[in-house]
Amino acid sequence: MNLADSLSSLLSAENRLTFGELVLCLDAGGSYSARHRNDEGRAVSDLADLDSVRALREMAKHDEAGEYRPLKTAPGLKSGWHTATDSPREFLQRLDAIYPGLFATWVAYDSGTFPPVPLRDTLGRQTGMYRFAGGITDGMAHRILAELCTPGCLRCITWPIDGTAPLPRVARGAGTLPLLCTEACTFAVSRARELAKEAYDLANPPAPAQG
Amino acid sequence: MSLSKPDAALLILGHGSTENPDSSQPCWDHAETIAATGQFGSVHCAFWKEEPSFRQVLPMIEEAEVYIVPNFISEGYFTRQVLPRELEISGHTTSRLGKTLHYCDPVGIHPAMTGLLTRRALEMIDESVKPEETSLIIVGHGTGLNQKSTEAIKVQVEAIAASGAPFAKVLDAYMEEAPFIADWQTLTDTPNVIVVPFFIADGLHSYQDIPVLLGIESEPTAAASQREVFRQNPHAFGDRTLWYSSAIGTDPSLAGVIVDQVAYFDEHYLA
Question: CB within 10 Å: which end of chain A, N or C, has fewer?
């Protein structure tokens, strides 16, 4: 079964799925639709009709205040719109414009073909300006989770800090599609680099100037 | 060139940005253009600093054969180290996750870029401006850290000059190494000068930093899409006239160069 068929099959079985800040529906007429969860219950006629991948990608690019949203799973997706199509393939592409690759990530994770990558593996392979990132302590890793990931992203983390203690597998609850994080993103890697570099610089202060 | 690969996917790789909302737009635009032609079963993009990331994208692709084209301007740290590492590929063709992954050359080194740069420069000026009284500067970032980053530009400058393009002079210049773009008035001696940025997107460098170095802006401006009035050409500097182009990577023809890199792969690297 391809990805679009998997999505169609899930919606056929449940009619309504929550997916991050979205609610997805299979309408009575056989049309696949999505809108912001805050807009559930509002008449379609009250919502802007976004009928293309491009329009949805543009919508998801900025928050209500006009600030750029480089992390698509950060909370704060705009509301006030609606999208609908009869094509499962087109519907999946529209979802990918809002949450890029997140449905495919779920399917691959659920099938066991896309295992989570431990944080230390992600950080350990970095080079260039990110080569410091691998030097974080477990305490710093927990700080990244608490200060960056938890408040700043809606994804459910599936990766452990190291490979010795895998996290329990995430199961899909009825009526939901999980937004999964299978590997630390560029924001977490950047933060790890900052923390490791700060610690290094503290431990290795510049020599005092001569004279 | 037009291809027919309905059983293969095309994956375009870009840098992306966590700060500039315009950085990834050329990749998406070119992907949309290519997808509309139906040459590939599907067309995808992935980014270093945006989503989907290089690490996330492969499960999205259902075709068993994937052509991967870096939408990067030169060969170097990213195309040689970061992209292969993140995609877990090596050499020209890799089998991974049940797929055959073909790693093509970056768009910026394709021979078609020469014609694209020439055409872009000639489109900037109208019939009243004589190309033989005009210098063309191809401007890049430049860094002492990686010689490859300037090599692609030097190759293009030589190729444009050798192609019989009608300009008085074709030269390269850089933001952070000599010859410096800030010295454009002394690097050239023609009444007219056209500057084309050899960048993938209109981002911090091509739209904000270089205009300041050229003297047409006094301070970095907002991102391209946030500006209400786009830059007006030409710009007068005494008896000199300057035309400044948007980044070459934003040219719609670049979609064709991406496809050309797939064809080049088949001709030169396909086992």
Answer: C
Q: How far apart are CA B15 and CA A208, in angstroms?
A: 40
Are the C-beta atoms of residues B101 and B87 closer than 8 Å to each other?
Answer: yes
Rounded (to 5) percent helix, strand, coil in chain B: 35, 25, 40
Give, as one character, the DSSP assignment of residue A68.
B
Among left, alpha and beta (phi > 0; psi -120 to 50; other), residue A68 is beta
Helical spans, DSSP H, in chain A: 3-14, 53-61, 88-98, 102-110, 119-124, 138-144, 150-152, 186-203
Whether residue B43 contacts residue B34, with contact meaning beta carbons closer than 8 Å, is answered with yes
Give the minimum alpha-carbon distance from A195 to chain B in angstroms, rounded to a whole number: 19
* Terminal Cα-to-Cα distance of chain B (whole angstroms): 21
Helices (H), B1-147: 25-37, 83-87, 112-124
Sequence length of chain B is 271
Task: Tell me which residue has tokens 């019989």.
Answer: B164
Nearest Cα to Cα of residue B247 among B116, B152, B106, B56: B116
Cβ of A105 and B55 within 8 Å? no
Give yes or no for residue A162 having a pLDDT over 60. yes
Contact B55 A183 (CB under 8 A): yes
Q: Do B60 and A2 touch (CB under 8 A)?
A: no
pTM of the model: 0.93
| CA pair distance A111, B240, nearest whole angstrom | 65
Contact B5, B39 (CB under 8 A): yes
Burial of residue B116 (number of CB atoms within 10 Å: 0-12, 13-18, 19+): buried
The interface pTM score, or ipTM, of the predicted complex is 0.95
pLDDT by residue (tens digit) across B180-223? 999 999 999 999 999 999 999 887 788 888 988 999 887 766 66
User: Could you tell me which of B51, B69, B261, B210 has the C-alpha nearest to residue A96?
Assistant: B51
B82 touches chain A (CB under 8 A): yes
Tokens for B76? 């170097």
Report which of residues B219 and B251 the model is more confident about. B251
Q: Do A186 and B18 touch (CB under 8 A)?
A: yes
Cα(B201)–Cα(B49) distance, integer angstroms: 14
Q: B216 near B244, Cβ under 8 Å?
A: yes
Beta carbons within 8 Å of A111's beta carbon, 6+ residues apart = none
Q: Is the bond preceding A166 in cis, omega lying within 30 degrees of 0? A: no
pLDDT surpassing 60 at residue B228: no
The shortest CB-CB distance from A70 to any of B50, B77, B85 is to B50
- The residue type found at A199 is A
